[in-house]
Design brief:
451 residues; 6-stranded antiparallel beta sheet; 23 strands; 37% helix; 30% strand
């Protein structure tokens, strides 16, 4: 650098003054805190800052993390009214669009965020997800590569991106998870056992195999024993989190040529594996219903069957329609718990309904509450280890339905909340869902409940 250029830089710095440098530093600090999932610290720091477009967008991000999606949407739009070139606000609107499975809108907003601020790794990672909704795998690959080239300091997301690229490479030019089925597939029968529901599946023409049907699984998985039996070759490996699990678990990914359930065939689909000996005793695999998200899916507990339709299912008399959000292949529905509202995972693979520790804290219970901490293991498809709290007299309410539980347990759901990027207040399991006929419409973002 020449002496003249150095003097010019010094002069510009002095003209900008310490306030500008401080503002940049504070914005970076807030962004880093959000990246590390330190929401309370980010909010505390933000409360001391002026209401600029960037700070309003940050407030939108905080509301998003808390699961307050309507407030987040309003704040992102407020930020764009002040500054239409605010990248973080476009990023937020892109994530909200993904939560409603609106791929084109998500791509539009996330592309705009990248155009405005191309050096933020997370924008590229989410853009990759948005392109996958649109089944544009070439552009998904491009965004994942851009993300990794930035060397982000995020072990879990880096592993996810690398696994995504390896999977795309393995499938090459083939379309992924192509569904073949008649216009009106025959009902798929399931049986109820151990507070779970099971159906039979064929893989590559072999079987039938026993699979748990799981609306709360992020991916379809098979046992390692079955993968060996079918002589499948692994594509790559990645890490997954079980709901409430003790931590991340490494899983191998395989390519399955054909998975058949009733009249429905899913061709060229990736599956993960599990090695838990307890789960292996009761199931050969776990069918994530998101693999069938091209359909409107009705889980009819009383009749013991899955109904699939390519049409939107009209609401019947007495049906309650609830808005749902779709993040990382999980469905979240708003539920009120003793007057406190939160978003719950709709999970046919959970043997019991649970609260998160954060929801328990809102209700005045934590591990230091006398008599709250109990020694109890919770069996479930995701598995569980950790501190369990009990809360008496819990009432769950939706606008039209009420379920009263004499006791509910609370577990640590921080890892699952971090994975999907928003607060999970709990899981609606078998004891909540089994009296209902549930209709899941991924594309419309709706859940119908009929008791």
């Amino acid at each position: 650098m020449s002496r003249r250029l150095a003097l010019v830089v010094m002069s510009l710095t002095s003209l900008l003054g310490p306030a500008a440098a401080q503002n940049v530093s504070i914005a970076d600090t807030i962004a880093d805190l959000l990246l590390q999932d330190e929401i309370q610290q980010a909010e505390s720091l933000l409360n001391k800052q002026p209401r600029t477009a960037q700070n309003v967008a940050f407030r939108g991000e905080i509301e998003f993390r808390k699961g307050h999606f309507e407030q987040a949407d309003a704040l992102y739009r407020e930020a764009l009214k002040v500054d239409s070139r605010n990248a973080r606000a476009h990023f937020g609107l892109g994530k909200l669009a993904m939560g409603r499975v609106k791929g084109k809108l998500a791509v539009q907003e996330l592309t705009r965020a990248i155009d405005l601020d191309p050096k933020v790794p997370l924008y590229h990672l989410y853009a990759g997800d948005a392109w996958s909704i649109e089944k544009n795998y070439a552009k998904q690959r491009r965004e994942l590569e851009a993300y990794l080239q930035m060397n982000p300091n995020d072990e879990d997301r880096v592993a996810e991106a690398k696994a995504g690229l390896e999977t795309l490479k393995a499938f090459g030019s083939e379309d992924i998870a192509v569904v073949e089925a008649p216009k009106d597939p025959a009902p798929i029968r399931f049986r109820k056992s151990l507070n779970l529901i099971f159906t039979t599946i064929k893989i590559n023409g072999k079987g039938p195999y026993e699979f748990a049907v799981d609306t709360g699984a992020t991916q379809t998985v098979i046992s390692e024993k079955l993968a060996t039996e079918l002589q499948l070759e692994p594509i790559t490996s990645t890490f997954v989190f079980g709901i409430g699990g003790a931590g991340k678990v490494e899983t191998k990914l395989y390519k399955i040529k054909e998975l058949t359930s009733g009249d429905v065939k899913v061709k060229n689909t990736p599956v993960g594996t599990f090695s838990d000996p307890l789960i292996s005793q009761i199931a050969d695999g776990i069918l994530a219903t998101s693999i069938l998200s091209d359909f409107t899916i009705t889980v009819d507990y009383p009749a013991g069957q899955l109904l699939l339709s390519r049409k939107r299912v009209s609401a019947t008399s007495g049906a309650e329609i609830l808005p749902v959000w779709f993040f990382s292949n999980l469905l979240l529905v708003p539920v009120e718990v003793n007057g406190k509202r939160g978003n719950f995972i709709v999970d046919t693979g959970a043997v019991t309904t649970v609260l998160s520790h954060s929801m328990a804290a809102q209700l005045g219970v934590n591990e230091n509450t006398p008599g709250a901490k109990i020694d109890l293991g919770i069996a479930g498809v995701g598995g569980f280890e950790g501190i369990v709290l009990k809360l008496p007299n819990i009432t769950f309410k939706t606008p039209r339905n009420t379920e009263v539980f004499p006791q509910v347990v609370a577990i640590d759901l921080k890892k699952i909340s971090k994975m999907i990027g928003t607060e999970v207040a709990g899981v609606l399991g078998y004891d909540f869902l089994s009296d209902y006929k549930l209709t899941l419409d991924y594309n419309a973002g709706e859940l119908q409940l009929v008791k």
